[in-house]
Amino acid sequence: MIATDLEFVVPAALEARRPPEMRGVARDRVRLLASDARTGELRHHTFAELPGLLRRGDLLVVNDSATLPAALDVRRPDGSPIALHFSARIANSLYVVEPRGPRVTGDVLSLPAGGRVTLLTAADRESDRLWYARVELPEPYVEYLYRHGRPIRYAYVDETFPIAAYQTIFARLPGSAEMPSAGRPFTARTCGELRAAGVGIARLTLHTGVSSAEAHEPPQAEPYSVPRETADLVNATRDAGGRVIAIGTTVVRALESSVSGGSVVASNGWTDLIVTKDRGVRAVDGILTGFHEPRASHLQMLQAFAERDALEAAYREALEGGYLWHEFGDVHLIL
Length: 335
Fold this sequence. Notes:
By secondary structure, the protein is α/β, with parallel strands linked by helices. The chain folds into 2 domains: 12-67 and 161-334, 3-Layer(aba) Sandwich (QueA-like); 71-148, Thrombin, subunit H. Helices cover 18% and strands 30% of the residues. The protein contains 7 helices and 19 strands. It has a 9-stranded mixed β-sheet. It is globular.
């Protein structure tokens, strides 16, 4: 079990309930809190100012996974309705799913259009939130979800938005249960300004599973792929004295899973890596990320970039300054 001693309370007023563009704010005009990991200095910006916060020769690494409409309405054997979230496809008909209600091993859930899910066993010894399941679908997985599913949303989002609201500009390969949200503020304009400023952009893929909704729950294993071109760019950037900045915790997890002999190598598979302060980071110099929940395991990862006191000060500043949380909220740059 993963715990962090960083404790705070997020007021309901700071929960971003709608996409910024539906609040009258452009994607690249959300707020950005910049933390200097060495000095502890905090500066307030909008995301559109990101190119000016970086240096020529820096490299941003983004996640190009596209978000699936991974939530479905299903029925239990007694006919009672529950929601089901698809977290990951393991192989063939074996999946990891999250039933949003009472569940019993062996339950057969009825899906739209004749699909079926048989719950097999809990996916984690510490929790029965996620389950391995045998899934039978009348058409391929991605097509089926786009036809019958909807984006996963939690209680702080009180209406359903189209799947386009949950895609980043980099989305290319469908597979994530939830949006790799650190990349959401990027626009074509921002990317153009970054390249004009001499900042590179490289891609990798990590398909996110259902987020860890329980306090202290560790992240699940997730499939990833780091292409050779990206590995080479990361190594060349660091050799030349540039900084590698991960756009999101998913990118950190993938790159750190690809370190071998002091360099990043092309790799793919499933990663269950948990990045902490004690482990540290070997391939990444900074991170752009959203603001995370109290006691979330992601806060352990952030302490690999900034000391606990500095991180605590940044979160205090964000709370006092009215920054917004969750996938439609503001972002935090740690360098």
